[in-house]
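Lab notebook page, bench 4
Experiment: in silico fold of construct C2
Operator: M.H.
Input chain length: 95 residues
Purpose: comparison with the prior construct
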Amino acid sequence: MIRHIVLFKIKDEYKDEIPQLVQNFYGMKGRIEGLVDLESGADFLHSERSYDLALITVFDNRAHFEAYQTHPVHLPVKKRMHEVRSASVACDFEF
């Protein structure tokens, strides 16, 4: 199993769009082969070290995780995130 975690800082002018961004993530659930779980949510703490938005996905193997990167359901979501984010960090690990 592969866990893919991404944290996003959203540009100020797009912060009102965060609920829609979360829904965009959930719109991928059940539509990508090998994506076995997905969670997303907005930060509520708003501390100095907080990121605005989290995406946690679980894939059944590396091949499906790699296929996800160019999957037609994922690509428009990925494109939008590149437009609205000011920064992101990721961690990917097997378990």
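Observations: The mean pLDDT is 98. Helices lie at 18-26, 62-68, 74-84.
Next step: discuss at group meeting.
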